Automatic annotation (TrEMBL):
Residue spans crossing the bilayer: 100-117, 122-141, 147-169, 181-201, 221-242, 275-294, 314-337
Record Pfam families: YibE_F
RNA-binding recorded as keyword: no
Protein name: YibE/F-like protein
Organism of this sequence: Enterococcus faecalis ERV63
Keyword tags: Membrane, Transmembrane, Transmembrane helix
InterPro entries xref list: YibE_F
Length: 347
């Protein structure tokens, strides 16, 4: 009961703090921040009367295009806080101010991870932070020097990210090479099969329209996203399978290889199905808003499906293959290292 009360109190503190940030942080912004005092919709424009909360206390009028479906700009309400720009001597809308709500989500997520997983949760968050920093660093290198192949950088990132993830979970001195190698093998094998298939079929059925805003070759960027897509799920599945095999060997040392593989298959069949389902819905959820938006505006179902789901389905297939390959690769490296260890003991 005490734990429940503490959790409830902590949640209320987080929400209250987030609302305070949302309400008062605008005073510390260098970018002009304003509170919408009134909204008038005239033809295809929203006429906003906005009171600035930083720099000056004056009231300004901002014109924003009106779209009922909110495809390009939101429909404003009274008391919305917005970020503005006056560099052209004309007040223009940049975006809604959402820092307080972001604070609530981020702090709630971190608190839940730490509360449920404890020390391991902390190191998982550290691993996520390191992986994000390293990814941005490699992308920065690519941005500064376009001659460096993006796929090469992402390949390096894939290997390092897997090592970082296992290192932060188990400690750098306790990195399990079996898990690292099995994950790398699964991810790269699925990637090569997917890219070879795309090459043989000349990318038939794939629609790259959603990537048309990119200023660099969109196919290369898409291929890089394929490689990244299955890392997390593949690593999770490898960890579950190899850890389960370790437990079986520890509790029943007399178990033979055939029985070990059979037991491992039963464990893998349950985890693999769950991982693939998670991956499927994760990819579909990112495309669903656009899918619904286009259908609501009269687009043909098949055309909309091809345009917004073809790339997501390809990402899912590549990631799903990586998860499936974790089963044989986990067995392969588990048995290989077991054999090496046994031979070392016999010498």
């Amino acid at each position: 009961m005490k734990k429940f009360k503490f959790t409830l109190f902590s949640l209320l503190v987080i929400i209250f703090s987030g609302l305070l940030i949302q309400r008062f942080s605008g005073y510390f912004y260098t970018t002009p921040v304003g509170i919408v005092k009134s909204v008038k919709i005239i033809d295809s424009e929203q006429l906003l009367t906005v009171k600035l909360v930083n720099n000056t206390k004056k009231t300004v009028v901002v014109k924003v295009k009106f779209n009922g479906n909110e495809s390009t700009n939101p429909v404003f309400n009274k008391n919305n806080q917005i970020l503005l720009d006056n560099s052209t001597k004309k007040w223009e809308f940049i975006s809604l101010k959402r820092d307080g709500y972001t604070f609530i989500l981020v702090v709630s997520f971190v608190s839940l991870v730490l509360g449920i997983a404890g020390k391991k949760g902390f190191f998982s968050l550290v691993g996520i932070l390191f992986n994000i920093i390293f990814l941005f660093f490699l992308l920065w290198i690519n941005q500064r020097n376009r001659s460096i192949n993006l796929l090469l950088l992402i390949s390096i990132y894939t290997i390092i990210a897997i090592i970082i993830s296992t290192g932060t979970l188990y400690g750098l001195k306790k990195i399990d090479l079996r898990k690292v190698l099995a994950t790398i093998f699964s991810v790269f094998l699925s990637y090569f099969i997917t890219t070879i298939t795309m090459k043989l079929l000349n990318d038939q059925g794939l629609r790259y329209e959603e990537m048309q805003f990119l200023t660099r070759p969109y196919r290369t960027v898409f291929l890089a996203s394929l490689m990244l897509g299955g890392i997390g799920a593949a690593l999770d599945n490898v960890v579950v399978i190899i850890s389960s095999l370790d437990q079986l060997v520890r509790h029943t040392p007399e178990i033979n290889t055939k029985e070990l593989i059979e037991s491992g298959k039963n464990i893998a069949s349950d985890t693999t199905t769950s991982m693939i389902n998670v991956l499927l819905f994760a990819y579909l959820s990112s495309a669903t808003p656009f899918f619904i938006f286009y259908l609501a505006n009269g687009w043909d179902f098949v055309e909309t499906f091809k345009m917004h789901l073809s790339l997501e389905i390809m990402r899912f297939l590549c990631g799903g293959l990586a998860i499936l390959f974790t089963i044989p690769s986990s067995f392969l490296f588990f048995l290989l290292f077991k054999k090496i260890k046994k031979e070392g003991e016999n010498r």
